[in-house]
Amino acid sequence: MTRPTPVSERHSRSVGLNESAVRSRGGWRGTSSVLAPVGFGIAVLVVWQLVVTVGGLPSFLLPAPTAIAEQIGAQFPVLLSTGAVTGGNALVGLVLGFALGVLLAVLAAGVRVVSDLVTPVVLAAGAIPIVALAPVFTTMFGSTTEIPRRLVVMVVVVVPVYVSTARGLRQVRPVHDELMVALAATRRQYTRFVRLPGAVPFVMTGLRLAAPAAVIAAIVAEYFGGLQNGLGSRISSAAANTAYARAWAFVAASIVLGLLFFLAGLLAERLVTRTLLSRPPGGSS
What we know:
The protein is built from 10 helices and no strands. The protein is mostly helical and about 280 residues long. It has a domain at about 85-275: MetI-like (MetI-like fold, Orthogonal Bundle). The chain is globular, with a radius of gyration of 26 Å.
């Protein structure tokens, strides 16, 4: 006679099966999230090559991916050096714009007059096109320095960081607000212990949004004079000399640089968010 399986044992087996199923589904989703865009990108390149080859499109309309790949291999050292220059300008402008955006948001959240003065100026700065801003900075600071391009990046970055941080600083729970009032906390203490910790996820979201925008601003700023040592200047130079495959090679390097900045911003956001979520309630900061 077969001994009946205890309920606890059946429950343990069921839980184990469920956990393994969840892990397998999670692993499949993680793999598919990587394979799907890679497969789609390969399909796009294949269709691109077929359209150019079969359709006989001229290179000034659309170079073939194989021609662009040849130029990437031939220009690889130049791609690295120009990418380092553009990436350095984007990084410096990103850091400056991030710090300035957070500082202005903190001041605006603490003083109503500052908010009324700063918010319209920041929003107006976000409406200024780069094509109008870059030549002005180049004329002001000269064409032999990287300062104009870094300032363009800074102006572009300030807007999303300021808007996101200001929104986070306004998201204060009523219970925390009442607690600070009951403790007779000063405005500085209120900002330090309530507003800033609650706004950290919003600040990191602003950084994630601003990171790829910094690369775009740095590349576009290089179109309007200055040193010919960045990706943007090399794109315009190659296109002007009808070297379209080479121009697309520098475009590909710009895409890679933008993705690196986006992934870095996304990683920073996730690390900070995970740290905040793993911190025990009431734990020391």
